[in-house]
Write a structure and sequence with these properties.
- The protein is 32% helix and 17% strand.
- It has helices at 20-27, 74-90, 124-133, 174-183, 186-190, 206-215, 230-238, 241-244, 246-261, 266-286, 293-296, 340-344, 351-360; strands at 96-106, 109-120, 219-222, 225-228, 302-305, 312-315, 319-322, 334-336, 362-369, 376-384, 392-396.
- A hairpin with a 2-residue loop joins strand 3 and strand 4.
- Helix 2 runs antiparallel to helix 3.
């Protein structure tokens, strides 16, 4: 029902222009509001082969008009409808307005003001109707100005000074961080000929990049914000400047574009990367950055030592896991807090239990629930780790009459 989504292009290829009027008429029925003005299609506004590389902009397909729209999940329905609205806006009549800019002189100081008068709403009529249908207010436009003439003197003007304070920019949310990654280095990327994408990562990888930073402890979610951890701030401090800059990404993208066009030998490109890496290694070998204890250890509470690799096991959100869990190669050791073995015994894999298992490989537990009899019993739980994805456990019963301290 929609075209390939993983693209940054906002244009269609020129050979699609003849079919656009039929497509627009087909998707017009998807709009959540009635339309009484005639449909206009200015295909030339959205077709440009030079601005399309691998994939054109995301639009509905002709099949979307025949889809069982009412039975679609709400999320899919909203996205398809949004695609239809944006297509009709993109090819619609121009939005025309007259803008007035005024400069006023007072007491030797200059003051400026701008105002707009709408000449023709054009495509914005469709967009405003869509926003109204989803109960969102349209964006505010500049207010209109009174009729003024050059040299006019305005008397009886009241003025006041208002003192205020600037506020720091808000922390990134996932949405605003994705948008910032898309815009990063926009000016540098715009200078690369025939490059479809810009920014850091691609539409398919940006969210995954953020998720990996969180998984590896360099960033974390706090409410709806994404903030760097102590380890993340230390990583920024010690990484060489060239690797922190988007300039390196744009330079490599420019050269890859030249390789694609056949104007640069791939071997020369790879030699350049190798030379740059050798230079960085040599520079920081001679002037090493201060050793960061933060980067060598997690800021999460340490529970014990990993029985597989010897690194620290730390307390995570859903498990007690080895600090090498996300390394390459990975150490996949983890004691899950919702482990089915313990849940079936109506017990919890808590920090005390995990620490005992890591220290001696076993823990004595009292009041274990029996699914067969409905009663309870005491036993030793033994960690039976075979190196697989999940750690296994088994029970060992002590039949003597000695009283043992248990959990």
């Amino acid at each position: 029902l929609a075209t390939y989504p993983r693209t940054d292009s906002r244009y269609l290829t020129e050979d699609m222009a003849p079919g656009l009027p039929d497509l627009c008429r087909a998707v017009e029925d998807l709009l959540p509001f009635p339309r009484d003005e005639p449909l206009t299609v200015h295909a030339e506004r959205v077709t440009d082969n030079a601005k399309v590389s691998d994939h054109h902009a995301v639009i509905p397909t002709s099949r979307s008009a025949d889809a069982d729209f009412d039975s679609m999940p709400t999320g899919e329905k909203n996205i398809l409808r949004l695609l239809a609205v944006r297509l009709l806006c993109a090819v619609g009549e121009p939005y025309v307005y007259a803008e007035t800019a005024v400069t006023l002189e007072c007491g030797g100081a200059s003051f400026s003001a701008k105002g707009r008068t709408i000449v023709s709403e054009g495509w914005k009529r469709i967009w405003k109707a869509y926003l109204k249908s989803i109960k969102q207010k349209p964006e505010e436009t500049a207010p209109s100005l009174p009729k003024l003439v050059k040299g006019q003197v305005i008397a009886k003007v009241s003025a006041s000074v208002k003192e205020g304070r600037t506020t720091p920019p808000e922390r990134y949310s996932e949405d605003t961080l994705l948008a910032a990654m898309e815009r990063a280095g926009a000016e540098e990327f715009s200078q690369i000929e025939n490059l479809e994408r810009a920014g850091l990562g691609t539409p398919a990888t940006r969210a995954d990049i953020i998720e990996k930073l969180i998984q590896r402890g360099f960033a974390e979610r706090k409410q709806k914000r994404i903030v760097p951890t102590k380890a993340g701030l230390e990583l920024i401090r010690v990484i060489p400047e060239p690797l922190r800059s988007v300039t390196l990404t744009t330079e490599w993208e420019r050269k890859l574009s030249e390789v694609e066009r056949g104007t640069l030998d791939p071997a020369i490109f790879m030699d350049g990367i190798e030379t740059a890496l050798k230079s960085l290694v040599q520079e920081y070998r001679e002037k090493p950055a201060p050793v960061s204890e933060t980067l060598s250890q997690s800021d999460r509470p340490v529970i014990g030592k990993c029985p597989r690799c010897g690194r620290n096991v730390v307390d995570g959100k859903s498990s007690f896991y080895c600090e090498g869990y996300y390394d390459t190669p990975q150490c996949r050791f983890a004691l899950w807090k919702n482990d089915r073995f313990f849940l079936s015994k109506r017990k919890q894999m808590d920090r005390k239990t995990a620490a005992a298992l890591l220290k001696s490989g076993r823990v004595h537990m009292t009041g274990l629930y029996s699914e067969r009899t409905g009663g309870t019993y005491d036993a030793d739980v033994i960690m039976d780790d075979t190196g697989g994805k999940f750690v296994k456990f088994k029970l060992e019963f002590n039949n003597n009459n000695q009283t043992r301290k248990g959990i």
